[in-house]
Amino acid sequence: MMHKIKIIFSWLLIGVLFLGALEPGSDAFAAKKNKYIRMNVKSVTLSKNGMYKLRLYNTKKRQTIVFSSDNESIATVTSTTQPKLAVVTAVNPGNTYVRATISNSRGRVVRTLKVKVKVTPYAVSVKFGKKKIYLNETKNTKLNTIIKPNISQEIPLYESSDTDVATVNSRGIVTAVAAGEAVITATLLSSGQSASCTVVVKPEPVETVPPEATSTTSAAKNIRSN
User: Fold this and answer.
1) Is domain 29-120 annotated with CATH 2.60.40.3450?
2) Which helix (H) or strand (E) holds 220?
3) Among candidates 183, 128, 188, which has minimal Cα distance to 157?
4) One-letter-per-residue 3-state SS of 6-35
5) CA 128 to CA 150: how far, in whole Å?
C-alpha cells in the first residue's frame, strides 16, 4: 500500500513540476514567446547618407529595447519616440551590423537580433541608355538609367521639362500624356551631375475604315432600302 502511495505521489510531483515550467511567468514559457520577436528586415543596402527605418514585432510592453551599431563610422542607429522603431543612417561605405537587444523587466537579456547594413558609395556618373525615345499617347516605359559605380544605391532625381507632354516618377517611369516633346532629366544630388533624354510623344493612331468596307456597308444599306 505504501509503495502505491509513493508511486502516486511521485507522479503528482512530476505533474506539478511540468505545469510549473509552462506557467506564463516561467523562463520556459517566456523563451517560447520571445522566439517570435523579429525585425522587419535581415539586411539592408543604403547609399551614403541614406536612411532606413527598422521595426520590431511581437515585443511586450514591459520589455526594454536597446538599438546599437557595431561600427558607427559606417552606420548609426537612433531610437525614436516609439520603442519598437529606430532609424539607421548610412555614414561611410562598408559593412556592419545593427543590433536590437531586448531585455525583460528584471533586466535579463531575452533576445538579440541583428541586421546587416551595407553602405555603398555615392554615384560618380549618370547617363541614359538612349538619348531619345518615342511613345504613343497614354503609353509608358521605364528609362534605362546607368549609374556608376554600379554598386551605388544612389537614386537620381527625375524631372520633366513639360508635364503636359510627358511625366516621370521617382523610379524613372515615363508616361506619355499628349503629342509633343519633353526632356527628362536625371540628376545626382550628391554631385549635381545630370543626364537628359528627349521623349517624343506621338498622337494616338486614328483607326481608318478601308474603302472596301465603306462600299460594302453602303451597298448593304441600298439593298435594305429597296
Assistant:
1) yes
2) helix 211-225
3) 188
4) HHHHHHHHHHHHHHHHCCCCCHHHHHHHHC
5) 14
DSSP string, 103-171: E-TTS-EEEEEEEEEEEEPPP-EEEES-SEEEEETT-EEE--EEEESTT----PEEEES-TTTEEE-TT
Q: Which residues contact 30 (CB under 8 A, 6 or more apart)?
A: 104, 110
- What is the CATH T-level fold of the domain 125-202, as seen in this structure? Immunoglobulin-like (2.60.40)
Task: Evaluate whether 31 touches 110 at the Cβ level (below 8 Å).
Answer: yes
pLDDT in tens, 116-163: 999 999 999 999 999 999 999 999 999 999 999 999 989 999 999 999
How confident is the model over 162-177, as pLDDT tens digits?
999 999 999 999 999 9
Query: What cell numbers appear for 150 in the block?
Result: 554600379
Domain map (residue ranges) of the chain: 29-120, 125-202
Taking only the tens place, the pLDDT of each residue in 7-29 is 555 555 555 444 444 444 445 44
Tell me if domain 29-120 and domain 125-202 are identical in fold.
yes
d(CA 175, CA 138): 6
Residue 138 has phi, psi (to 5 degrees) of 75, -5
Retrieve residue 21's grid coordinates.
515550467
From 153, 152, 180, 149, select the one nearest 164 (Cα to Cα): 180
**CA–CA distance, 111 with 124 (Å, rounded to integer):** 41
pTM of the complete model: 0.61
